């Protein structure tokens, strides 16, 4: 049986643990994300690690993948309502660093 978490920061930290997830979340707070843009913005990242992190953030329900059907066809990642609800917690944690 899983123990209920009472602290939103604890839940957020668990969801953002892993390579590049916190950085991706921070960038998603600012604007919708595109894969190649993330590759350029996150120093030291590679396609495999970013793809894995994005998929895991989707599975956690923090990001949603949206296909933009305008030419050229592309994919954007946006914060979900769940992700938006965690922004104040994230910002508070950033302020402690």
TrEMBL record:
<dbReference type="InterPro" id="IPR036388">
    <property type="entry name" value="WH-like_DNA-bd_sf"/>
</dbReference>
<dbReference type="Pfam" id="PF01638">
    <property type="entry name" value="HxlR"/>
</dbReference>
<keyword id="KW-0804">Transcription</keyword>
<keyword id="KW-0805">Transcription regulation</keyword>
<dbReference type="InterPro" id="IPR002577">
    <property type="entry name" value="HTH_HxlR"/>
</dbReference>
<protein>
    <submittedName>
        <fullName>Winged helix-turn-helix transcriptional regulator</fullName>
    </submittedName>
</protein>
<feature type="domain" description="HTH hxlR-type">
    <location>
        <begin position="7"/>
        <end position="97"/>
    </location>
</feature>
<keyword id="KW-0238">DNA-binding</keyword>
<dbReference type="InterPro" id="IPR036390">
    <property type="entry name" value="WH_DNA-bd_sf"/>
</dbReference>
